Amino acid sequence: MKARPADQRALLDVVDLDIRIRQAVHALSKPAQAPRLAALQGEVAAASRVVTDLLGAKEDADLEVARIEADVKVVSERRARDEARLAASTNPKDAQALESELDSLARRTRTLEDAELEAMERVESAAAAVADAEAIVAALVDERDALEAAAGAEAAVQNQRRSTAERDRAGVAAGVPADLLARYDLLATRNAGAALLRRRTCEGCRMELSGTELQAVRSAADDDVVECPQCGCILVRTEESGL
Description:
243 residues; alpha+beta
C-alpha cells in the first residue's frame, strides 16, 4: 500500500483522538464513584431495615403504654365510684368491703403507674434508637446523593470530551485517504493501529526493531505503508525514527 508521508503522519492524530475517545468511554462505563455507590445501595437498604425494626419496637412500646393508660383509667373510674359509694354508705359491712376494695385498687394503681413509667422509658429509649438509626440512613443517603451528583458531573465532562474527540477525529480522518484509514481501522481492532517509529522502537508495542527489520524499513520508499514486524501496526516514520 502507498500513502503520502503526510497522510501517514496524520494517522498519529487519529490514534491520539481514538485514545481520548476510548478513555472517555471507559470513564463513562466505570465511573470512579461506582464501587462506593454499589456498596451504599446495600448499606442504605440494611440501615433502612434497622429503622423498620426499631420503629416496630417503638410501636410495641407505644401500644403497651396505651394499654396501661387504659387500665389506669378503668381503675381510676372504679375508685371514684367506690369512693362515692363509701361516702353514701350507712352499712358498716358494706363500708368495710368498699374500703378493702379501695385499698386493692390503690395497690393496683401503683403497680400500673410503675409499669407505665417503665413502658414510657422503653418508648423514650426506642425513640432515641429510631432517631439514631434514621440519622445513619440520612447520612448514607446524603453521601449517595453527593456521589451520584459527582458521577453525573463527571459523566457530563466525559461525554463532552468524547463528543469533542469524535468531532475532531472525523475532521482529521476526512483528510486521510480512504484505503489508508480502512487499513488503520482494521489493524486498530488488534493492535495500536498506527504508531511512531522513534529511535528504532515501535511506540505501539515498545519493541525495538532488529537490525534486519530496520534494514527492511530503511529500504522502503517514503510513501510505502510499513507495518511493525512485531505487532503489525502501521509504522509512521519521521526524523525521530533513527533510520
